[in-house]
Amino acid sequence: MSKSSISDDQGPVIVFDAMCVLCSANAQFVLRHDRIGRFRLASMQGEVGTALYRRCGMDPADPDSIIIVDGPKVLRDSDAVLGIYAGLDWPWKAISLLRLVPRVLRDPAYRWLARNRYRIFGKRETCWLPTPEQASRIL
């Protein structure tokens, strides 16, 4: 992972599972609704995503959470999901109000969904690929 590909001053990076139908749909949602281009995305199956998972002490071969890496700060589990919505425009930003629900209640629900995401939503045969217009935001 080169320093230029993941510079801390270029904003937060969402690392997601591009094989997961739900995760890929969420990545596409972010690209559509993040009008100012705040977030960059990295597939955990790619070089940058794998390196970021490892940097955060996670196994990219057995992911248990989406993460947002913003310099030294890392959000995971329900905090990462709500952090995404907090970074979007209205009305999506309103979903981040769920941060008022204690993490002890949010995270078990998130972890259950994360563990069962392939069974519930399915698994892609190939990784999701961005459109040419979206490619500049994918690491």
The mean pLDDT is 87
**What number of structural domains do the residues give?**
1
Biggest sheet: strand arrangement: 2-1-3-4
Query: Which stretches are poorly predicted, pLDDT < 50 over at least 5 residues?
Result: 1-5
The count of β-strands is: 4
Q: Specify the number of helices.
A: 5
Element string (H = helix, E = strand): EHEHEEHHH
Name the CATH architecture. 3-Layer(aba) Sandwich
Helix proportion of residues, in percent? 25-40%
User: Which structural class best describes the helix and strand composition?
Assistant: alpha+beta
Largest sheet: 4 strands, mixed
- Give the N-to-C terminal Cα separation: 10 Å
Question: CATH topology, what is it called?
Answer: Glutaredoxin
Per the principal axes of the C-alpha atoms, what is the gross shape? globular
* Top-tier CATH class: Alpha Beta
Q: Roughly what fraction of the amino acids lie in strands?
A: 5-15%
How many whole angstroms does the radius of gyration measure?
14 Å
